[in-house]
Amino acid sequence: MMHTSPVLCATVEMLQHAEEVYTPEVFSLFQKQFIVIGDYVAKKVSKSEMVYEYNVSYRGVAREHLVNYDAANETIHCGCKKFSFAGILCRHALKVLDKKNVRRIPSTYILNRWSKEAKARNISYYHSESPNETVKQSIGKRYSHICHTFREIAYVAADHIEMTLCA
């Protein structure tokens, strides 16, 4: 599988950071979210200590998304729940981070499975430290463990023909 280097559409620190940490495919998805934040408006609803609440809308359209940002521990939550489903921050959250002058993606929101470092992990990582403990669990937990392990192995193996054949 041949990968091409992603192309930054603007020299913005947040995008540069995303390009450094994300795989090219995920960077492309992230960049699509980021480049539209200029068309969004974030209105502060409330502030209590270091927690800010914003309503974010597209060019003032009536539909709004509630975004909470805790500056103390750099956590952000948007009502659209894109991060929960896709694993990348949504445009609403990115708009608030931009408004708060956050220039790098908080580490909490860089999922290992989307990072360039995930591919560098050694397959031995997937061997259970104590296989006997896994065997003693319920059938549901064993099944879940096996599925998770196979998914991770498939993700790593897909980049190399030899590893794909082995998997």
How would you describe the overall organization of this protein?
42% of the residues lie in helices and 17% in strands. With 167 residues, it is α+β, with helices and mostly antiparallel strands. It has two domains: 108 residues, no CATH class; 29 residues. The protein has a four-stranded antiparallel beta sheet, covered by helices on one side. Helix 1 packs antiparallel against helix 2.
Keywords:
single chain, 167 residues, 2 domains, four-stranded antiparallel β-sheet, 8 helices, 17% strand, globular, Protein FAR1-RELATED SEQUENCE, zinc ion binding
Question: Mean pLDDT across all residues, rounded?
Answer: 83
What gyration radius follows from the Cα positions, in whole Å?
A: 20 Å
Query: How many domains in all?
Result: 2
The first-to-last residue Cα distance is 16 Å
Work out the helix count: 8
Strands across the major sheet, in which order? 1-2-3-4
Subcellular location: Nucleus
Pfam families: SWIM
Domain SWIM-type: 65-101
Protein name: Protein FAR1-RELATED SEQUENCE
